[in-house]
Amino acid sequence: MQPRRIARELALLSLSQLPKKASKLSDKQLGDVVVAAVRTMTAEATEALESAVSELKQGHDRLESSQHRADDLKTARLMVSESIELTQKAIEQVGTALELPEFVQLANQEEVRRYALQLLSTVNEHRADIDATISAALVDWQLDRLPHIDSDVLRLAVAEIEYLDTPERVVVNEAVELVKRYSSEDAHRFVNGVLRRALDLRANAAPAE
User: Fold this and answer.
1) pLDDT tens digits, 156-189
2) How far apart (Å, rounded) are the C-alpha atoms in residues 133 and 12?
3) Domain segments of the chain: what residues?
4) What residues have CB less than 8 Å from 97, skipping those under 6 apart?
5) C-alpha 154, offset from chain centre
6) Could you give the residue ranges of the DSSP H alpha helices within 16-147?
7) Out of 3.30.930.10, 1.10.940.10, 3.90.550.10, 3.20.20.60, which CATH number does the structure's domain 126-202 have?
8) Which of 157, 153, 196 is nearest to 178 (CA)?
9) If you write DSSP's letter for every residue of 71-87 in order, what string do you get?
10) I need a labelling partner for 57 at 20 to 30 A (CA). Which of 15, 102, 122, 196 fits?
11) pTM of the model
């Protein structure tokens, strides 16, 4: 995984822990937030594995029931189908848990931490202006009504474009990938649309050369 991609993910997981009212936070305070995010991911890995064990046990119990308690073929098939779904869910949980140790390891790299802190510091310092940019690009929505993951992805994206000079195409693509991973099924289309409108507004506001 690319360091900046991990840094964005780490910043996203940390952002919700920052105070909503802008205030100057020290590097140590921001660092503590990042450490807390890593610990949260570690706890989620453990929870995912525990959940996988539970799903597998339920699947096993369903199979046992289909053999011993089903009165007809239709019921047996239904119980087997349910056991397969539970097993598939368990496999997904294990897959998630296996990804997290790599994330945690990479998150501890200096380059990743440094860019994550830069993102957090930028959002924290310019939050009012960033929120104003997002609000101007929203259609029939209010920023404070958005799911917090969606709004935080938008904040990080605008921060990178406006203050960190990251190429617009890279920012939009990375934002879309983040919401695909952490938000609802259709959120990536919404976030993509908002960022495209924000970029159009930015282009139109730029002075002609």
Assistant:
1) 999 999 999 999 999 999 999 999 988 888 899 9
2) 18
3) 1-113, 126-202
4) 45, 46, 48, 49, 52
5) 11
6) 27-68, 73-107, 110-125, 127-137
7) 1.10.940.10
8) 153
9) -SHHHHHHHHHHHHHHH
10) 102
11) 0.70
